[in-house]
Request: fold
Amino acid sequence: MPIPVLAGIPWLAAVLGGIFSSLFAYFANFLTKRLAITAAVVAVIVAVTTAFFAAISALVGGISAAAPPEVSIAAGLVIPSNATFCISSYMSALLLRWVYQWQVRIIQYKLF
Reply:
């Protein structure tokens, strides 16, 4: 009687293999879509943030180039030399917090 039992094992292995491979393919497809959407959202946010920072830097550079030298001398008496670094750090921190909150909201909308 061992022959009928052995004859059913390849069939059972094929059925179980088919089920597991379909489940694996479904989960891989599902996770791949979620990861692709998340990566695309993060890439867009980084691009928009970079463009915004470049635009702000260009505006500040344009204003400082167009201002007369007396303004920069007067500002040098009142404003410390590291004020640009301090203000840009503060603005960058605010911008990063805003971008982080926005990313979390977008990712939550896309994933859930």
In short: Residues 2-66 form the longest helix (65 residues). The mean pLDDT is 78.
